[in-house]
């Protein structure tokens, strides 16, 4: 059953269209990525999902319920980590946790709360306003986890986190996913998206430009980098490779064709090549290819 269903949603601010006709679904228990350049409409989309701002059109369903009609019921089952964490600065961290549990009508488990504080190295006695950026983000993470949500929505959750806490966070998130929790992750850190998400949605200039299965697509696309005084552009393009970057003595291609044909071609070219590498396309390559293609079409 889909946990997130966006159907033709849009958002306009006056004449400016921030989100334009976006549709996709996220299934229960999925670890789903949502990526795009700055200003693409990621945060606006999530703000509409959470009913922080009203959509200008389309329909939103979370956990099988329409938003905003069932806004309160839905939010009780959601954990949210904003990109910019702002809580009352004079409140102590322990009080923020208490208020979070009260909102969800839960007593909470003191042992579980202590475990999270120990895991993320949080001092619950400190005032929120005295915390560093990273420690504020850690408090927001715990607030998103302690009420056992069915859906966790995160906007740049690892900003300010050191590598140790980063690794611990994703270990917790994988455990939650294994328990059936759905995780929606927006991040500029493409490596973490690639490592943990099974599917991703690409958004640019408010428009959805693709939803792809990472477990399939990048295994089928190869990236070939060749170095030579005379680059074999025409030969590579003849077998179906696409040149995505070229300098005086280096060219990078993407290729989705027959591997035997590729290696035969590279073998024949080997006397004139200084170096050649073949690798699976990673998410950064895919992101840049989609972004540059859309930029070229726009220009």
UniProtKB/TrEMBL annotation:
Transport as UniProt keyword: yes
Residues covered by the ABC transporter domain: 4-230
Transmembrane segments: none
Keyword Nucleotide-binding: yes
Domain of life where this protein originates: Bacteria
InterPro entries named in the record: AAA+_ATPase, ABC_transporter-like_ATP-bd, ABC_transporter-like_CS, ABC_transporter_ATP-binding, P-loop_NTPase
GO terms of molecular function: ATP binding; ATP hydrolysis activity
Keywords: ATP-binding, Nucleotide-binding, Transport
One protein family per Pfam: ABC_tran
Family in the record: Belongs to the ABC transporter superfamily.
Protein name (database record): ABC transporter, ATP-binding protein
């Amino acid at each position: 059953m889909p946990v997130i269903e966006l159907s033709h949603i849009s958002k306009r601010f006056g004449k400016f269209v921030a989100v334009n006709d976006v549709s996709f679904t996220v299934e229960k228990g999925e670890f789903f990525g949502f990526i795009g350049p700055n200003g693409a409409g990621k945060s606006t989309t999530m703000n509409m999902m959470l009913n922080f701002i009203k959509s200008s059109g389309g329909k939103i369903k979370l956990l099988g319920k329409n938003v905003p009609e069932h806004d309160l019921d839905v939010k009780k089952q959601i954990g949210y980590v904003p990109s910019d964490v702002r809580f009352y600065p004079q409140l102590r961290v322990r009080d923020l946790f208490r208020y979070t549990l009260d909102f969800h009508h839960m007593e909470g488990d003191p042992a579980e709360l202590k475990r999270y504080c120990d895991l993320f190295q949080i001092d619950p006695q400190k005032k929120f306003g005295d915390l560093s950026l990273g420690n504020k983000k850690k408090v927001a993470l715990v607030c998103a986890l302690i009420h056992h949500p069915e859906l966790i929505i995160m906007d740049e959750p690892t900003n300010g986190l050191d590598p140790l806490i980063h690794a611990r966070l994703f270990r917790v998130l994988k455990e939650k996913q294994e328990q059936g929790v759905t995780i929606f992750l927006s991040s500029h850190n493409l490596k973490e998206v690639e490592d943990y998400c099974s599917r991703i949605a690409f958004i640019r200039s408010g428009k959805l430009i693709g939803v792809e299965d990472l477990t399939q697509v990048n295994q089928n696309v190869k990236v070939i980098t060749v170095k030579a005084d005379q680059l074999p552009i025409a030969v590579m393009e003849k077998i179906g490779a696409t040149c995505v970057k070229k300098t005086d003595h280096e060219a990078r291609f993407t290729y989705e064709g027959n591997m035997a044909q590729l290696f035969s071609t590279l073998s024949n070219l080997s006397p004139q090549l200084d170096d050649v590498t073949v690798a699976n396309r990673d998410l950064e390559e895919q992101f840049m290819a989609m972004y540059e293609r859309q930029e070229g079409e726009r220009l």
